Amino acid sequence: MKIQEVLSTTKEQRVAAHSHIKGLGLRDDGTSEQAAAGFVGQETAREACGVIVDLVKAKKMAGRAILLAGAPGTGKTALALALSQELGIKVPFCPMVGSEVYSSEIKKTEVLMENFRRAIGLRIKEVKEVYEGEVTELNPVETENPLGGYSKTVAHVVIGLKTVKGSKQLKLDPSIYESLQKEKVDVGDVIYIEAANGQVKRVGRSDAFATEFDLEAENYVPVPKGEVHKKKEVVQDVTLHDLDAANAKPSGGNDVMSLMGQLMKPKKTEVTDKLRKEINKVVNKYIEQGTAELVPGVLFIDEVHMLDLECFTYLNRALESSLSPIVVLATNRGVCTIRGSDGIAAPHGIPLDLLDRLLIIRTVPYTIDEIKVILNTRSKIESIDISEDSLTALSEIGDKTSLRYAIQLLTPASVLCKINGRDQVTPDDIDEVNTLFFDAKASAQILQTSTKFIR
């Protein structure tokens, strides 16, 4: 027999580029702290995003668009992720990159519309009739098999349910008896049965039986309060894209031809505009009845300058739609040519008519002190022990080159320090790593002076 000691059972999570971002880091009055919730600097941009979060929660922001504009590595994607963290899991957040629209299978506008629909949520409230209580009796009533033979079949099942307020005896269908058997329901269990579809769920064992045995691996629950027959409100969250996808793929028959047809279908199916209009009608009917509530989410399009003129004109139309999410665009371009146009230059590579609809939030480059705080936060996330002098040396490199380059040097520096038999990263490790690797500016400089590269 081999007994082995396990050192730790904690799962290690993969550290991503924005693992340290936990929110916008704002105070209750909406002002931003210098460093909070993993976010450092960009106070004005964070406060502006805080106002947008309030507008989204108040449902006054639908059909509007925001542009995050700034140099590379100034935290535009981090701002969008912090925005989604602040909104919570109940509000749909759909991130995409501008180049995603170029697909060989479906149209560009279809990809945009699909993501638009993914970013709009629908909260459906449904009232279900249920029978709930502790099982007091469970008697299947058998009858002669109509097909003949000696075996007997279950005609119906009589079940007794008891709550704190009263008790009821129910006569159930044989199909529900099968569900009871699958759930292993016994006398003394607390169950609930849905009246509409006869679905059975075993909640646990009644706490009246808690002292019956010393050893019993059971989940004990109290006897339900109220009547046996009651109405329960169930809330379900779906997106409009889920409804589109469910209605766009009708399941065929069981014959060979329909199965072959399903196999021969292309990988991606376009959802027609006609189908979307029909779904919108049903959704609007639900909203008018009060059974559903619309939750406009956030669609984040990174590298928006990659979209072409067709996509921009489509965005104009989509933003004016009655069912539209909040669109957050991000770009690091200055004045550049609009893709798909005959050399028309525009700010951020976005046409002026669309730019006129946007609220623009500017992100500014980080100072050397802010770079130092960010590097310190990243070293903690990546579990790297780094000295104060090393942080200062690395932040100076980040100020000369870029923040991204400085962050990328952290892990190689920790590897070097372990090779040298130390636990803490020193300035010597930083200098050595900096000589091993080149940043973009240094590499470009070498290309300009060297003649040995193929031009």
Discrete helix count? 14
Give the % helix: 25-40%
User: In angstroms, what is the radius of gyration?
Assistant: 31 Å
Give a count of the beta strands, DSSP E runs of length 2 or more. Answer: 17
Q: Based on helices, strands and strand pairing, what is the structural class?
A: alpha/beta
What proportion strand? 15-25%
Show unreliable segments: none
Could you provide a short overview of the structure?
With 455 residues, this protein is of the alpha/beta class. The chain has 14 helices and 17 strands.
Indicate the topology:
Layout: E1 35-36, E2 39-40, H1 43-57, E3 65-70, H2 76-87, E4 93-97, H3 108-118, E5 120-144, E6 152-162, E7 167-172, H4 174-182, E8 189-194, E9 200-206, E10 220-221, E11 229-239, H5 240-248, H6 256-264, H7 273-289, E12 292-296, E13 298-302, H8 309-319, E14 326-331, E15 335-337, E16 345-347, H9 352-355, E17 358-363, H10 368-381, H11 388-400, H12 403-419, H13 427-436, H14 440-449
Parallel strand pairs: 3-14, 3-17, 4-13, 9-10, 13-14
Antiparallel strand pairs: 1-2, 5-6, 5-8, 5-11, 5-12, 6-7, 8-9, 15-16
Helix pairs in contact: 1-2, 3-8, 10-11, 10-12, 11-12, 11-13, 12-13
